[in-house]
């Protein structure tokens, strides 16, 4: 039984260098994050200034300010109602999707699929399926194949084995075997 011992490989850089690189990366990430926050804030202010004009309330009386606040509250309520309606519709649809997926899961378990039989299809039927019903003529794939006929071995007819033994005996038999070999 062999025992293999693994030694820990020493890191290529020292611990102080690694710590220095980590702190440098963290500082860079913090500055990038702060820049991104500032860009988002500037973008938000720009979009709000384009879409929503600044509110001038310096010349309004008390009644006009109250009417303005009521109108703003009414608009906020309408937006909240629309958001609530949409959220309710989404939750209903999510529940329906969950119910249908549960039914599908149950039906898969109940229904047994029949065992499919292997069917041999001829080459003509495959071509018909691939090319459509337009192909009516049959294609003979074997027509271009070369046929190799086996040579039949010549069988010597032996009627009586004793005659064959007599014919092969002596020097005449050896001469016949020698001639047959050449």
UniProtKB/TrEMBL annotation:
Gene Ontology terms, cellular component aspect? troponin complex
Show the Pfam families listed in the entry. Troponin (PF00992)
MF GO annotations: actin binding
Q: Does the keyword NAD apply?
A: no
Query: Per the UniProt entry, what is one GO biological process?
Result: skeletal muscle contraction
Q: Which InterPro entries match?
A: Troponin, Troponin_I, Troponin_sf
Enumerate the UniProt keywords alphabetically. Answer: Actin-binding, Muscle protein
Explain the purpose of this protein.
Troponin I is the inhibitory subunit of troponin, the thin filament regulatory complex which confers calcium-sensitivity to striated muscle actomyosin ATPase activity.
Q: Which PANTHER family match?
A: TROPONIN 1-RELATED, TROPONIN I
Question: What family name appears in the similarity comment?
Answer: Belongs to the troponin I family.
Recorded protein name is Troponin I4b, tandem duplicate 2
* The species this protein was found in: Periophthalmus magnuspinnatus
């Amino acid at each position: 039984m062999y025992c293999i011992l693994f030694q820990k490989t020493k890191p290529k850089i020292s611990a102080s260098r690694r710590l220095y690189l980590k702190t440098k990366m963290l500082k860079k990430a913090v500055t990038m994050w702060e820049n991104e926050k500032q860009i988002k804030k500037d973008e938000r202010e720009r979009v709000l200034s384009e879409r929503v004009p600044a509110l001038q309330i310096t010349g309004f009386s008390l009644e006009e300010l109250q009417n303005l606040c009521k109108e703003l509250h009414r608009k906020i309520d309408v937006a909240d109602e629309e958001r609530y309606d949409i959220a309710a519709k989404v939750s209903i649809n999510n529940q329906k999707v969950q119910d249908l997926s549960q039914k599908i899961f149950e039906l898969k378990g109940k229904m047994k699929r029949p065992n499919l039989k292997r069917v041999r299809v001829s080459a003509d039927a495959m071509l018909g399926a691939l090319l459509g019903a337009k192909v009516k003529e049959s294609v003979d794939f074997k027509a271009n194949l070369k046929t190799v006929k086996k040579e039949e071995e010549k069988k010597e007819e032996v009627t009586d084995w004793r005659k064959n033994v007599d014919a092969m005996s002596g020097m005449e038999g050896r001469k016949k075997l020698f001639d047959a070999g050449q």
